Structure formats: structure tokens, C-alpha cells
Amino acid sequence: xxxxxxxxxxxxxxxxxxEVVDAFxxxxxxxxxxxxxxxxxxxxxxxxxxxxxxxxxxxxxxQETKSLVNxxxxxxxxxxxxxxxxxxxxxxxxxxxxIMACIWGPMRFLFKTTRLDDKAFDNILDVYQxxxxxxxxxxxxxxxxxxFPDSITCLVHIYKDxxxxxxxxxxxxxxxxxxxxxxxxxxxxxxxxxxxxLAATLKLHFDSIQDHGRPFRDRHAFxxxxxxxxxxAELTYEDKRKFDEYRINYxxxxxxxxQSEANRKAxxxxxxxxxxxxSSETExxxxxxxxxxxxxxxxxxxxxxxxxxxxxxxxxxxxxxxLWIHGRRGLGKTVLSSLVVDELxxxxxxxxxxxxxxxxxxFYCQKDDNELETYLGILRGILHQLVSAxxxxxxENESLGNESGNHNLAILPLCExxxxxxxxxxxxxxxxxxxxxxxxxxxxxxxxxxxxxxxxCKASTEIQQTVTFFTKQVTKCExxxxxxxxxxFMSQTSKEIGKLMSKHNIQTNAGEIELDPNDNMEDxxxxxxxxLIRDGTKFSLSEWDKxxxxxxxxxxxxGLFLYAHLAMDYLLKQISKDDLLAKxxxxxxxxxxxxxxxxxxxxxxxxxxxxxxxGSYWNSAKQLLSWLICAHRTLKWHEIQAILSxxxxxxxxxxxxxxxxxxxxxxxxxxxxxLPGDNIRLIHNSAKxxxxxxxxxxxxxxxxxxxxxxxxxxxxxxxxxSDYNEAERxxxxxxxxxxxxxxxxxxxxxxxxxxxxxxRPVLTGGQQATENSPALTAALTFAIQKFVTAxxxxxxxxxxxxxxxxxxxxxxxxxxxxxxxxxxLWNHICQHQKDTSDKRNKVGIARLENALKAHRDAxxxxxxxxxxxxxxxxxxxxxxxxLFKCSRxxxxxxxxxxxxxxxxxxxxxxxxxxYPCPLEERCGFxxxxxxxxxxxxRHVRNYHPQLSDAPSAFLHMRRRVEAxxxxxxxxxxxxxxxxxxxxxxxxxxxERPYACSRCGKAFARVNDCRRHERIHTRNGQ
Length: 1021
Prior knowledge:
This protein is mainly α. It has five domains: 2-235, no CATH class; 281-515, P-loop containing nucleotide triphosphate hydrolases (Rossmann fold, 3-Layer(aba) Sandwich), CATH 3.40.50; 522-589; 700-881, no CATH class; 921-1018, Classic Zinc Finger (Double Stranded RNA Binding Domain, 2-Layer Sandwich). 57% of the residues lie in helices and 5% in strands. The strands form five sheets. The protein has a six-stranded parallel beta sheet, with helices on both faces. A hairpin with a 6-residue loop joins strand 14 and strand 15. The relative contact order is 0.05. Mean pLDDT is 86; it is low at 1-13, 222-232 and 952-962. It comes from Colletotrichum karsti.
């Protein structure tokens, strides 16, 4: 290589300006900065000759194993880079070897790394071919570079564009082999736009050199006797102006590309988040953080007293990477979990004890919320945060590869690929979620996960799956780097959970921490004192009074923070200082949480009875609380308003007159809370248990009441009348008639199920019958009879109950007027639940299904959330902000919905045809996806072979095709026979109308079906 610097080939008077040398050197330095020390040294010694030798050895090996992959694709790239090195060497660039090492070194590295992975190696060769085609024969334009030194800028740009590709490829393939193999296929597909851009910018350089260098071009440049002097051509002013345009165009192309990539990545991230469809944990976390704001210093004893927690948070490596913290119900564990999350965030911001690039994920389990009480819900929540943490590329950042600070962005293509390959509108596959989370964990240098409320999971299997998966991930990451992944579980003390933790080596003195209620005492005192100072000024309390209240509440609380919170809410609602001090006495304060809930309920009752003597306010509040306790999913505020506005006697829904015009917290005080999405829940899961045991609330009767309301509602004229017209529908929409339809359509059968299972004792003749039982039984009988009569397409009653899954239906046979229609209804429910997943995702009653669709279509077409209804009310008050709903009853978007039609339709299409083409909107052959993965794979093989997993080693000769006159309207492919065209068009959508008469297997083409049937004939079937 020294000959290139100082040999006889160098021409006198030729030299590179310092700015050009600096440009090459700077580009090389930036590239080397992303390399590991080992690779930097290895690359520095790389030369073109080494590449040639190694490729020759590789080709010989491939010939021996008959696995040739067309290495000829490298020729143009190698020629181009050889010419670049020759020019730089002839011009006396002293650092030419070091500069060109950034070309030859990465090539050697990429070939060595991917040589055992056919697809990866093939992809590398393919990109080199795409780039090489756009590199001009540089040695033919030496006279141009001599006559017009500014044109050397093209060489700098070519060099930088090649380094851009090498930087991107290096960042992928320099990871552990097992890791990059997980990412490679999806990442390479995602990088296609980058490769297209690089090819386009190289073509821009090619065109500029070719246009300006035509008068200077020496087509014999590679001859040994060729020189630089090929004529006396000169550049005109117009040539110089065009070259200035080229430089501006190049900068603009890169600017536009970086912006489009930032936009594309933002859209990709948004698409993945919508697919994950997780409940918002950040809003829950903000709520718990708000609770802590009263006393920010509370809870810090957790890591000051327990060295295991401090060690887990700060030390590297920690003594234990798994922690299980547990204690009594009401201790404030969830608030402690949120405190740990925020403290870790502060430590990461400081960057001393915890690395700055640390990622912190959390999940708060919530009982009776299907999104927050299952293993899949936990996986979704964690994955949602990992995807959300991906830092989008900065369009102003011109550094090589333009990679964000964390590694999460690099995993988004894999997530998007899973959307395409797994089917479904949302993430419903645990295996897929686990696989993606595992990749994120493996990529992170430090990852914390805090999972609160394990005991609130729906079933023990959910807890078992959660603990098993996350502890397994910790073990895997420990093999890579101890302390890389750290997981904290928080729950109530439980023998079952304790046994599970022991199986995973989390036990006393090895990651298990039991909280002592006494540790909370100082925090409770501080909390009480702070509230008395902040909110107790109206009582004019003396220091002795404050100390008295503080002592009594902290003493009675037994370290339960929930008790202190409820007690202060109870006391501060008193109307006089005398009442407050009287109720704060030790003998007067409720004993334990159960009594406290009773006191709070009694306080709500008394306050509402004082407002209205006839008790109507209290009756409404009692109904509302009862529904919150017994509903089969979390109710939204507008749904609660709909129940209250439905008059069973007149069968009229009147939001305008009957909706509650105050906030729910003003109505029910601290017993309820408003969650994200306008969902209403009781303040704590313990409230449901204790309130259901009070004399004011009878859960069994409430289940009957909800069943009655659902059935009576679904028997209204707007759901059953054949002559129901559009004018009526429009009028009913404005009145709020359809606010309750999402809940009633999806949940009515569950309430019937609960009535059969639990409510017989409170009906006439039951063991817990009261004076209200006859009226309740009559109302339930009437509702069921009316419903069965209105929907005569229900399945008929069975001859016997032997085949029904529940025997408790027979306990109603002493109530014949109720039993017979209930039996028919129950049989319909059982048959519906035994059906396929698609059928179970429908309402199951054709008349209701049609009515639901008609009502929703009208709302979507003619109304917006901001449209006024009556007086100052809007559609949003009656129906919420999301008017575009999914049609599948078991999907959360059936009631949650979307705020626009495009998102809903995209979601719905994923249900109906869950396997889209990998190119989705860009594919003109299959715009709506496929019903099976097999059909999608066949489509990819036929129309997008570059996306298939098989390497594209050599191009095959195409056979001659005769002229055809039958053209496909979708992809414009032509056929010689119309029957072949029809079969082809059906294949676009995976349709198979021809079924085998023997086994039922379906085919797209009749000849394929006949050929298959002959197999049965040959086999004697």
C-alpha cells in the first residue's frame, strides 16, 4: 500500500486540500468511535488483499459444499472501492490505509459474522450489490477531479454514505450472535428504506460525476499507459452552478430522509403501542404519586431500614436480583411500590449509583379489572412501557447510524414483524409477549421491574406464570451480566405465594422481606399531622387537639395506612369541632377496616338523607355502590348514568332529567375513585368485600337487579321492533338511549349465570327470602319472560337439564313461571358458550346483533362527541369520547372504542383477516390481509420473494410465457384461461370454496379439490 502513497503512479501537482483530508479523516474517526477496542484494532489492519483472499477461500468452501451464493454480486462494489483507494493513494493521502480500513474492515467483519447464516450473508451481498451498481468507474474521471477540485466532494460523500451502511450493519451484527439472529430478519426488512436512500444518494453522486466529467472522461483509465491529460476541456459557469445544486440536493436528501425516518419510526411505535393495547399504567402511577405528595418523605424507611432493598436498588452487582416484599392488607404497599419506582428514576437521573440509561418498568395489579389482573395483562403493561421508552431518532442528528440512547428503538421492527406474523388485532398471545420482553431485557444494560399487587391477580395460575417468567428472565440475564435485570414483587402476605417464591429461591435472607406495620407509625403520624394543618384550619384545633387526634388514629390504625387515610377523610367531613373531637376518641374510632367502611357508608347515608327527606338521594347512592360491587366489568361513568336514567315502569331513558349533575366523588365521597378512561371503581379491593357484608347492600339481590335491568333494556322497542325507523333512532341517540348497550349486550348472560349460581336464596321460598323477595321474583320473572318473548330466535329449552353444565338451574323448578323461560335462556347461554371463538365474540341473538350495528352505524355517521344533545349536554356526556367500537364482544375495544374510524377499521380488519401482507398498505395484491398464516406465507413466496426466509443466491431463468387475455383486477397478472384467473383471484384472499366430499378439506381451485379426492379413492376410503 506504500506504493499508493509514494510510488511512481503519483502525478506531480496533484494534492488534496486540507479540508478534503479533514473530511475523510473526520468520517473515519466518527466511524471508529462506534467500534469496540478489539474491532478497531482488527479493522485497522484490514486491506483489500485480505478481503480477496478470504472471499476466495469462502467460495472454495461453498463449491465443496455445493452452497454457492453468487459472490459476483460484490464485484462492482469492490471495483468502486478499489478505485477510490487508488485515487486517494495517488493523490498522496498519507492516511489512506487507515481511511480505507473503514471499508475493508467492516466487510471482513460482516462476512465473518454472517457466513454461517445463509439469509444474513445473502442480505449483506444484496446490499453491497445495490450500492455497488451506483458507484461510478472513478478512475475514468481523474481529469475531472484534477480540473475541478470541488468535485472531490463527491468522493467524500460516497465514502460517508458507505460508512453509513457499515455503521448500521455493525451495530446490528456486533451484538451477540444469538441476539442479532433474533433481530436480523425484521431489522433488515425495516432498513430497506435506508438502503434505498443510500442507493439513491450514491446515484446522485454518480450522476453528478458523470454529467460534469463527460468531457474529461478517460475510458482507458485502467490501461497501464493511460495518463491524466485527456484533452483541454474546461468547466463552464453553468457546470459550477449545477455542482452547487448537487451539493444542496445531497444535503436536502439527507435532511428529508432523516425527517421521514423519524416520522416513520414514530408511526411504527404508535402502531405497536396500539397493538399491545395495554391499560395505562402511567396514569395509575401518577395517581399513586399524587397520594404521596401530601408527605413526600413518607416510605423512605423501606430502603433505609431494609438493606436488601437498598442493595437491590444501588449495588452492582446486587446480593439478590429478585425481591419479594409482602405485608398485611392496607399497609400502603402500592404507594411504597410507586415510591421505589420514582426513587429509581431519581437515581438514574443522577447517574451515580444507577446508570443513566437504566430502564424502569412497573405494573399495578387491580382486582376485578380484566386488563390488570391477568398474566397477559402484566406482560402487555410491561411491553407497553418498553416500547414507549424507545427514543425516536432526532432528524437534526447527523451522526452515523443516528441511533438513540437506548436499545429499544432497534427492537421495534421485531415488534412490528410480530404484528404481521401472529395475526389478531391486539396482542393476545402470551408466547409472543414473552419473546418480545425477553429481547428487550437482553438488550438493556440495566433494567428494573416492579410488579405490585400480585395477590390481586385473577387466579393462582396468573401469579405462578408471572413469577416463573420474570424470575426465569433474571436467571438468563445473570448469565450475561449479574444485576442486569432486577425484579421486585409486592403482595399481601400469603402462604401460597410464599411457597411459589421458595420454588424460585426467594425466601427469608434470600430476597424475601416481610413488612412490619410498626414501620408505618411515624409516616401515619406525619400524614395525620399534615392533613390537620392543611385541611383542619376550619376547626381551629389547638396543638393538644392535633396531638390527641394524631395519637388516637396512629394507635387505632395498627400500622395500616389505608385505615389512617379513611379515618382522616371521615373526621374532616364533620361539621363541627365538637363532632370531630368526639368521633376521634379511641372508643369512638372504628375498630379495623371493616368498621371504618361501615362508618364511611353510614356517613354518606346520613349526609344524603339530610339533603332529601324521602331518601331518594341515598337510594340512588346505594344503587350506584351496589352496581360497582356487582358489575362484571368496571363501569364507565356514562354507563352508570344510563342505568340511573332508565325508568323500568315507563321504559323511558331520560338523561336530561335523571342524570346525576355532580361528580361521583361528591356523591359517594372517598368510597370511590375515578380511573383513566372515566372508569369508576371502589377505593380499594377490600371495600368490595366489606361493603357487600353491610346490611345496606345485598349482593345477591343486586345481581338480580342488574340482570333485570339488562334484560328489560334489551327488550326495549329500539332493540326488538321490526318497524323501528331511522327518525326514532336519531331521536333516541340524542336522548342517550344507547349509552348502556355496550355493557348490556356483552354482560347480560353473565348476570343470568350469577343469578342461577348465587341468587336463589333471596327469591321467593329461598333461605334468605325477605319481604321484598316476592316483588324481586316477580320483576325477574317478568324481565326474563319479556326478553324470551321479544327474542324468539333463542334456542329452545332442552328436554332435560342433564346436558347443562350447571345443576343449580333445577333449584328454580319450584317457581314454574320463572323456571321455564329461565331454562330456555340458560340453554341458549350454554350453547353459545360452547361455540367457536368467532361465534362467542358475537352477541348471539340475531335481532340484537342487527340492532347494535344499526345504532352504532348511525352514531358513527351522524354524531361527534362535541355535538350538543339537550340543553348544555353533549354526545360525549352520554356516550363517552370514543364512538367507534369493535364488533367483537370479548374485545376490550367493544366498549372502550376508538376516537376515529380509521383506527377502528384497522383494528377490526385484524380480527377478520388477522394475517396481513408484510408490506400491508404498500402491497397492491392483498390489501386486506388473509384468514390464515398459510395463505399469507404463500402470498409472500409468490409476490414478495425478497421477504421470504430462503436466500436469493442466483437468479433463475424465466420460462417463456404465452400471451394471455384474462387479467386479474387486483394485481393485473394475466392468464390464458378464465378459470385459472378465478382461482387466482380467490387466492388473493385465502378463499377456498371447493371442499372435499370425504374429509371436508377446502381448496381455492376445483382441479386441486378433484386431485385431492382421487387420493381418497386410491386409498380405498
